[in-house]
């Protein structure tokens, strides 16, 4: 019996990376007078490092190795990430980043039958609530019993910590929950916490490895727009709905 659904955010609820976080990082770099620019391909590489602050630090180390990693640098990273978060919120508020197919429908279906909902993400809590607000309404964050986000645990995905934190707050065992992820790092994290996991891929994650997932899908699908099953089995269904979930 499934009692709760736990969703990753970036790449899973919405395609936030390429046209959301990436341009926001670039704008923050520009505002700070840096000539750093993350194009679509480079950003794909950098996504191997989860966490925006961690990603900036990794980029600087790899592409600007002469930069000293002193206190000034730490402040710069913090400032860049704050600016990027603010810029990203303006993109969300402008309606530039919609939810992926089936997400809104599945959340509504799950609420209607009393399933608990949770979030487990590497991104900041304010990014989560802003994405939910502009896509689902002012109070959408209250649909979720637990929002596990950002620096709440020291070790980000692929470590299982964020999912373990969410399970503890939900007061549920992993067997009673189902996780939704889009990436290999996310899957490692959810599997590490013992969670059954469904994958919906996107352009950045399509070629990654998803061993151990229940199924790998193009997206959650809609009744009039079935999803493509790339790996595994969704029990003969054409899209993911609460009736399907109960059979996993
Ligand atoms: C998402 C991330 C985040 C986002 C950017 O991973 O790694 O770092 O790219 O958000 P996941 P922040 O979907 O596995 O949680 O800059 O707020 O970290
Ligand atoms: Mg993700």
Word description of this protein:
This protein is an alpha/beta fold. It has two domains: about 5-15 and about 95-245, Rossmann fold; about 15-95, DNA polymerase, domain 1 (Orthogonal Bundle), CATH 1.10.150.240. About 40% of the residues lie in helices and about 10% in strands. It has helices at about 15-30, 40-45, 50-65, 70-95, 105-110, 125-135, 160-170, 185-190, 240-245; strands at about 5, 115-120, 145-150, 175-180, 195-200, 215, 230. It has a seven-stranded mixed β-sheet, with helices on both faces.
Give keywords.
9 helices, alpha/beta, DNA polymerase, domain 1, 248 residues, single chain, seven-stranded mixed sheet, binds magnesium ion, binds xylulose-1,5-bisphosphate, globular, 2 domains, Rossmann fold
What is the 3D shape? globular
Low-confidence stretches: none
Report strand order across the widest sheet: 3-2-1-4-5-6-7
Bound molecules: xylulose-1,5-bisphosphate, magnesium ion
Give the overall average pLDDT.
Answer: 97
Q: Which percent range describes the beta-strand content?
A: 5-15%
The number of distinct helices, counting runs of at least 4 residues, comes to: 9
Within CATH, the superfamily of the largest domain carries the name HAD superfamily/HAD-like
* Level-2 CATH architecture of the largest domain: 3-Layer(aba) Sandwich
């Amino acid at each position: 019996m499934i009692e709760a659904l736990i969703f990753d955010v970036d790449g899973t609820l919405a395609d936030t990376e390429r046209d959301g976080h990436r341009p926001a990082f670039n704008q923050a770099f520009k505002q700070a007078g840096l000539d750093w620019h993350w194009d679509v391909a480079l950003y794909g590489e950098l996504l191997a490092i989860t966490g925006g602050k961690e990603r900036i630090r990794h980029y600087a180390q790899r592409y600007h190795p002469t930069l000293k990693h002193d206190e000034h640098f730490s402040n710069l990273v913090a400032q860049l990430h704050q600016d990027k978060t603010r810029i990203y919120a303006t993109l969300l508020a402008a309606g530039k980043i919609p939810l992926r197919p089936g997400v809104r429908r599945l959340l509504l279906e799950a609420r209607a039958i009393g399933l608990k909902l949770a979030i487990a993400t590497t991104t900041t809590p304010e990014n989560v609530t802003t994405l939910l607000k502009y896509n689902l309404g002012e109070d959408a964050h209250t649909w979720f019993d637990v929002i596990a986000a950002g620096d709440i645990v020291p070790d980000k995905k692929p470590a299982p910590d964020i999912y373990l934190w969410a399970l503890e707050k939900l007061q549920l065992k992993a067997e009673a929950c189902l996780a939704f992820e889009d990436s290999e790092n996310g899957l490692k994290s959810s599997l590490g916490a013992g969670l059954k996991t469904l994958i919906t891929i996107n352009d950045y994650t399509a070629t990654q490895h998803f061993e151990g997932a229940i199924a790998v899908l193009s997206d959650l699908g809609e009744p009039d727009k079935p999803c493509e099953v790339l790996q595994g089995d969704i029990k003969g269904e054409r899209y993911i709905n609460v009736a399907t979930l109960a059979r996993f």
